[in-house]
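Can't attach files on this board, so I'm pasting raw text. These are the components:
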Amino acid sequence: MQSLTPSRRAASGLKQDTHRRDPAPSRIAYKINRLWLTPLFRAFLRVGVPVFLVLFAIGWFFSNPTNRYAIGEKFTEIKRSVQERPEFMVKLMAVEGATPIVDDAVRAILPISFPISSFDLDLEVMRGEIMKLDVIENAELRVRPGGVLEVAITERDPVVIWRTDGQLELLDGTGHRVASLTARSARADLPMVVGQGADQAVNEALALIKTARPLAGKLRGLVRVGERRWDLVLDREQRIMLPEDQPVQALEQVLALDQAQDLLARDLTAIDMRSPLRPTLRLAEPATEELRRIKGMEMGDTADE
Amino acid sequence: MSDLYTQQRAMRSMREAAMQRGVIAILDVGTSKIGCLVLRFDGADHIREGDGVGSLAGQSAFRVIGAATTRSRGVRFGEIDAMQETERAIRTAVQAAQKMANVRVDHVIACFSGANPRSYGLAGAVDIENRAVTEDDVARVLASCDVPDFGAGREVLHAQPVNFALDHRSGLSDPRGQIGNRLAVDMHLLTVDSTVIQTLLYCIKRCDLEVAGLASSAYVSGISALVEDERELGAACIDLGGGSTGLSIFMKKHMIFADSVRLGGDHVTSDISKGLQVPLATAERIKTFYGGVVATGMDDREMIEIGGDTGDWEHDRRTVSRAELIGIMRPRVEEILEDVRTSLDAAGFDHLPSQQIVLTGGASQIPGLDGLAPKILGQQVRIGRPLRVQGLPQAATGAGFASSVGLCLFAAHPQDEWWDFEIPAESYPARSLKRAMKWFKDNW
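---
Top answer:
Structure tokens for the assembled complex are below.
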């Protein structure tokens, strides 16, 4: 048997296939080929078009509010799932270095419902809130390992009582308000200052009180006069008026006089040390009368008898 | 004449633009194949001047990055015969070369072999004004050549100054800056049929390419196939092409004569086709595989199957001895060589000091041609292959690519032509005055 159609090898041989397809490119193909070889066009097609398409697709996707919302939702969900891992959860708050009253106040200021993620705690803001309490000098907040929000508090120490507008305020060494006081007797151990601007000069007042320790029994309080100088008010309505400059030295001078001549035991209303070079005494009414009588006797004048 | 001058100058500026871009294509439009090479120029700074030999004919300045050939269609005797066919063939070659080079080429330098080239020797002389020869003087002396009447429908393809003479001193290649009173020039002018050029330009333009230069293929194969001393001492390059045989004579590194014989390898093929009653394609195949021009006793016994597909067993099983094939080919090859001899004699080749003849082109690969050619052309005959240039594929280094390679060299280092010099200054006022007169005549 023999195949009726000749095999390809038999058909070739010396004979050439004269009806071969023309390999010439068509005019269009040639132009497209040349266009494709143009560097600018090629760059445009390989970079510009894909970039445009991607941007367009993204833009189209995001132009739809449903898609935008869904993506936002998904993002929030993932974020929450990470934040609410047990490692990041805060379970309780520990307030340290505070008296029970302050402790309660701090807990009232920070109404946090535990457990809460530590990502949701803004420690700076919380610290600012706590620092608004006058009694607190410094507060440190940190999340301790183990899920504890630690609030370390340094309280202000009251050193004087300041009476102003009929109210009693406790002040610390810097003159900052600590708390209000309902009755003087509640803190009888603290000295009293009075007068406008007294809180600005607490330091000076403390120095004076320290110096006036020998008079501790008699000292009723300090009065700030004209927001510039101090008066020491003693019992028996006695008053030591101190100068603006160097009041401590002036007080020491008075104390020295008192020690030497028992000055304060005498019937004086005021010792005026406003000009330290010229201490002046103001006598009480009976003492003045007595002084006048003695002066009259000395002069032998009995005319007024 | 000035029309041609501007046209050639436009091509030169196009070539400048191509050099700027660094990529240029060369296109060899032949009768049997169309070749396209894409060249990349690295710039002149790569060539170190005065370092040893320096650039050998400038071929180090470029690199072939794309090469393609395709079967030529619609070309006869080196002239375009069917424009659409040729345009498609050019497109094929250009596209394949572009693909290999991976760049787009916009500028092309083309060569063709036909169009009845005719050589003229021109002479001109001028007095020099300022003792030293300036570029302007060179332009003036070139313009002073009395151009012969080469008839209508002819166009100048090459116009190269080949020799300058200053007073009694002749043989100057570059007279600029030299002192003298009278400058004379010998110029070689090559004219071709203008219709052929127009057709070729049209075809190239249809392919979206800009023509950056035109050259005669006889000239460019001479550039690539002749070695330096042959071109200096005098030699003829015979480019045995498919449809026509180009011949160019070089002397002192300049082409002094070019001609073409309208016979070539295709005629041998058609002889075989007629003689053996086979199709042209088969005849071409038989020629390239078994062809020759000198028969020996062995060739009587070597039988060639010539085949056929008529279905007639007797007809399809024909054989022919190689001696018979040689018997068909030899007379035609002899005829071609004899025509070349006639042309060389007409040119006065036997007066040259050295009479080296170099055969190149596709048809020079016929075995035994080196034995036959000396009997007709003279003793000093060799078969030439083109110079090697950088990046040329191995497949394109054969003798058939002599004109392609020559065109590369021509593109890299073009010879100074007439149009490279400015139009002499004094011809401007005359012309504008004439134009003004014409305007007055037309309007008053």
